[in-house]
Amino acid sequence: MIPHQFTQLHCSAFAKTKKEVCFPEGELVFITEDRLDDALSMPRQCFIDDEPMGKSIGVQFTEEFKLYWLTTFRQGLSFMLVNPTNGDIMGFRGICTALKEDKEEVNQIKDASLRKIFSILGLLVKEADFFGRYDIEECFHFFGLGVAKQYRKRGIAKRLMEAGIVFLRNLDVDPVYIKSEGTSNFSQKTFEQLGFETLAEIKYEEYEVDGEVVFKNTGEHKSVKAYGMKTSKA
Ligand SMILES: CC(C)(COP(=O)(O)OP(=O)(O)OC[C@H]1O[C@@H](n2cnc3c(N)ncnc32)[C@H](O)[C@@H]1OP(=O)(O)O)[C@@H](O)C(=O)NCCC(=O)NCCS
């Protein structure tokens, strides 16, 4: 069973993770309620400007979008990497939980850009059939991974992802099921190197709504992929 309330267990699992995954360049900090303001600056500093789908359609950090991040960070499973010398947030790993019965009501999303993003993700998730494939009712969801521009290409994203897996294993949930989506070549490479299974893929150039390609000019990033992982302590 996934613990749905923040407990001492989360803190000890996180402390253990910090010893197990090495970040010589910064301090791994757990996002607790008192750090939500700092946490909400992360999507703007490390994510939105360069995430391929959002960038291609000019997604903005609206109040509606902010709420998705807030809901994720409030679950007390996400963490960030902080530079101890200047206080910079270097990167973050968003983690939340997901239920088989969860439904994204795409038509109720007011922001048109967000609606486009959640529409393609909805299609992808349907194709991936994560819950059916693993025959489960709930899982963890890696939602949002970002590294600030000046700290990229040093292996930070890879270690944040690794720390996410180690942290969830340390929570005493066994086995651990993780679902996620990778919209960038770089995150996809990391998911695959860490042993995630590719469950579905939609190529940006083939995804059309009303006869028009939605995500244009995504550069070297060619598709969005759905991933799944089942992992155990042993
Ligand atoms: C995607 C992102 C998190 C990667 O962060 P990072 O710390 O630079 O990534 P890493 O250094 O751990 O690199 C991961 C892999 O991608 C490769 N990579 C990263 N940036 C690259 C670049 N600009 N060009 C080519 N390869 C790159 C790395 O070489 C590495 O592969 P390797 O292990 O085979 O060497 C970062 O670019 C980012 O924040 N982008 C904007 C938000 C986003 O797109 N998030 C992911 C959405 S799913």
Account of the 3D structure:
With 234 residues, the chain is of the alpha+beta class. The chain has one domain (8-231): Gcn5-related N-acetyltransferase (GNAT) (Aminopeptidase, 3-Layer(aba) Sandwich). The chain is 38% helix and 24% strand. It contains eight helices and nine strands. Helix 1 (8-20) packs across helix 7 and helix 2 (36-47) crosses helix 4. The site of coenzyme A has 21 residues, from helix 2, strand 4, helix 7 and helix 8.
* Terminal-residue CA separation: 18 Å
- Overall pLDDT level: 95
What ligand molecules are bound, each kind once? coenzyme A
Uncertain stretches: none
Largest sheet: 7 strands, mixed
The total of beta strands comes to 9
Gross morphology is: globular
Under CATH, the homologous superfamily reads Gcn5-related N-acetyltransferase (GNAT)
The CATH topology turns out to be Aminopeptidase
> How many domains in all?
1
Secondary-structure element order, N to C: HEHHHEEHHEHEHEEEE
Oligomer type = single chain
Query: What's the CATH architecture name?
Result: 3-Layer(aba) Sandwich
DSSP helical segment count: 8
The structure class reads: alpha+beta
What gyration radius follows from the Cα positions, in whole Å?
17 Å
Strand content: 15-25%
CATH class equals: Alpha Beta
Strand order of the largest sheet: 1-2-3-4-5-9-6
